[in-house]
Design a protein that fits this description.
Length: 266
């Protein structure tokens, strides 16, 4: 691990001046932390606030930035104003990242910063990730991939540096809970966020509320399904207050990217 971290630090040091696209997730936090460590104020850490990131993740990102004295700023915009994104095609993530990178590039041009870094790791190369196409088109640099770091490597590195989100479960954008082809709106995103926050508050780690219009299909770790069954009445009552008319427990259990099934190799 020490060797990989030395390699990562050297890769980032060679960039000189960078913008880091930061979300508060462990991957981008590691890149932001190392960039700040080796470049100081020449690393501008930028968090994008949109409807698809939870307030908890925004607050975590701010907390880490403040704790480590990042050269930090936030940009805010409305992803739902992107027509192709809101229509929710199978390459929805492409339009999300295309917009993000356009804004980061505009900022980089304004500040005369030559490189933009993201938090993609080696494991991301094996999944269905249309956002990677946007990254390539925008010449985004991925130092974790350059350093051959997997997700497990990232978590071990985050623990090594004492980062508070080393074990934070993956938190893809809220739109990933809505089946492709179903239009995305603010109300649906708010329902999902509130439903998942409530269930996590009951002691569950990995939680997804898949949003099928009026139906919520809940995924938790397979080992926690029995616990969720025992709480079904309480959870169902709360989710119906949020506007769902039917609440289903997914008996297969949590699997990241489940709505990508069938298109993962596209």
């Amino acid at each position: 691990m020490t060797e990989k971290l030395q390699q990562l630090e050297e890769i980032i040091r060679k960039y000189g001046r960078v913008i880091v696209g930061y979300s508060g997730g462990v991957d981008s936090t590691l890149v932001a932390f190392v960039a700040h460590r080796v470049l100081g104020k020449d690393a501008l850490i930028v968090l994008a606030r949109t409807e698809t990131i939870t307030q908890e993740d925004v607050e975590l990102g701010r907390h880490i930035a403040l704790e480590h004295n990042f050269n930090y700023m936030e940009i805010t915009y409305n992803e739902l104003e992107i027509e192709q994104y809101a229509a929710n095609p199978v390459n929805r993530c492409y339009f999300c990242k295309q917009e993000l990178y356009a804004r980061l590039k505009a900022l980089a041009d304004k500040e005369n910063i030559p490189f933009i870094l993201d938090g993609a790791n080696v494991d991301d190369l094996g999944d269905y990730r249309p956002g990677r196409t946007a990254a390539k088109e925008s010449d985004i640099c991925s130092p974790l991939i350059e350093a051959s770091m997997t997700k497990q490597d990232v978590r071990e590195a985050a623990k090594f540096y004492g980062l508070p989100n080393a074990d934070k479960p993956a938190a893809p954008c809220l739109s990933s809970r809505i089946p492709y082809g179903t239009h995305i709106d603010r109300k649906s995103l708010e329902q999902i966020a509130l439903a998942e926050k409530f269930i996590r508050g009951k002691g569950f780690t990995n939680v997804r509320v898949r949003h099928f219009q009026d139906t919520a299909k809940i995924e938790v770790d397979a080992s926690a399904i029995e616990k969720l069954r025992r709480m079904k009445d309480e959870v169902e009552s709360h989710l119906k207050q949020l506007g769902y008319t039917e609440v289903i427990i997914d008996e297969e259990g949590f699997r990241s990217g489940k709505l990508n099934k069938g298109i993962e190799k596209a």
